[in-house]
Design brief:
Layout (H helix, E strand, L loop, with lengths): L2 H15 L5 H18 L9 H21 L4 H27 L3 H29 L3 H7 L1 H5 L7 H17 L4 H4 L2 H14 L7 H10 L9 H15 L5 H14 L2 H4 L1
Helix pairs in contact: 1-2, 2-3, 2-4, 3-4, 4-5, 4-8, 5-8, 8-10, 10-11, 11-12, 11-13, 12-13
C-alpha cells in the first residue's frame, strides 16, 4: 500500500479510537473508513502470500464487522464482509477441514459446524446487502425465490453471487440437516439470476460455481451435461487466467464419472 493511503488509513483508525466531539463528525470518519476498506478488500484475492492473507483476514473481517455496527446499511461494506467470510472459509478453512476428516473424526465434526456457521454468517451479510436496495427480500425469498429476485439488476450480481456461494457451501457442510437442504431452490434462484444478469462476471466465476452445483446428481436436480457446458464457458471466459474451472470439473464431474483421462 502506498505511503499516503497508509497514513490516511492510520488517521481514520485513530479517529475511531479517540473521542470525537459531535456525532456527525464520528459518522463521517466511520463512513470514510468504511469506503476505504470496502474498496481495499479485493486486494486479499490478489496477494502473492496466501499465508499472510490467512493470518490477516480474521482481524480484517472483525474490523469490517465493527464498522457494520456503525453503518448497518453501507452496502459495499456488507458486500465486503460477505465475500470476505466466504473466501476465508472456502479458501483456508475447508481445505484444512478435509485434511482433518482423515485424521480425527471428532475434531472434524466440531470444525465442520464452525465452518458452516461462518458460511451462514457470510450468507446473512449478503442478504443484508441485497435488502439495502430491496427491503423485505429475505422474507420474499421464502415464499417465491424467482419472483423475489425478478427486480434485481446487473449491479446486484456481486451480492447475488456471494450470497449463493456462502449459502450453497453451508448446505454442502450440513447435508444431515433437512432445514438447510430445503433451501437449495433459493440458492439456485440466486445464482441463476446472477447468470442471467451477467454471465461473464469475474471471468466466469458464476459458471465455475455452477459446475459444482450441477454435479449434485440428477435425482437432486443436477446434470453432468450442464456441468460440462458451464465448465466450457468458464474456461472460455477465464481465458487462461483461472485454474478453478479445471479443479472444479475434475473434482465434481470426472471423479463422479470415473473418467481418469479427463481428470488428468
Amino acid at each position: 500500500m502506498p505511503a499516503k493511503p497508509k497514513r490516511r488509513l492510520t488517521c481514520l483508525l485513530l479517529a475511531l479510537l479517540l473521542p470525537i466531539p459531535g456525532c456527525s463528525l464520528r459518522k463521517m470518519a466511520v463512513k470514510t473508513m468504511a469506503d476505504a476498506l470496502s474498496q481495499g478488500a479485493s486486494t486479499f484475492g490478489t496477494d502473492e502470500d496466501p499465508q499472510l492473507v490467512k493470518e490477516a483476514l480474521p482481524f480484517g473481517l472483525k474490523t469490517l464487522e465493527s464498522l457494520v455496527v456503525e453503518l448497518p446499511n453501507h452496502r459495499p461494506l456488507l458486500r465486503s464482509v460477505s465475500s470476505g467470510f466466504t473466501q476465508y472459509a472456502a479458501g483456508f478453512l475447508q481445505p484444512e477441514l478435509r485434511l482433518l476428516e482423515t485424521e480425527d473424526f471428532e475434531k472434524a465434526r466440531v470444525e465442520r459446524v464452525r465452518v458452516r456457521k461462518l458460511f451462514l454468517r457470510a450468507r446473512d451479510y449478503g442478504l443484508r446487502a441485497l435488502e439495502v436496495e430491496y427491503p423485505g427480500l429475505r422474507q420474499a425469498l421464502e415464499k417465491d425465490p424467482k419472483q423475489a429476485l425478478a427486480r434485481t439488476v446487473k449491479a446486484d450480481v456481486p451480492d447475488l453471487y456471494w450470497t449463493a456461494a456462502a449459502w450453497g457451501s453451508a448446505i454442502s457442510l450440513g447435508k444431515s440437516e433437512p432445514g438447510l437442504l430445503l433451501e437449495v431452490p433459493t440458492v439456485e434462484a440466486l445464482i441463476r439470476r446472477a447468470l442471467v444478469l451477467d454471465d461473464g462476471w469475474e471471468a466466469g466465476a458464476i459458471h465455475e460455481f455452477l459446475i459444482a452445483f450441477e454435479s449434485r446428481g440428477e435425482a437432486s436436480g443436477g446434470s453432468l451435461e450442464r456441468a460440462r457446458t458451464h465448465f466450457e464457458r468458464a474456461v472460455e471466459l477465464a481465458n487462461g487466467r483461472r485454474v478453478g474451472p479445471y479443479v472444479s470439473f475434475a473434482e465434481n464431474v470426472c471423479i463422479q464419472k470415473q473418467n481418469r483421462k479427463e481428470f488428468e
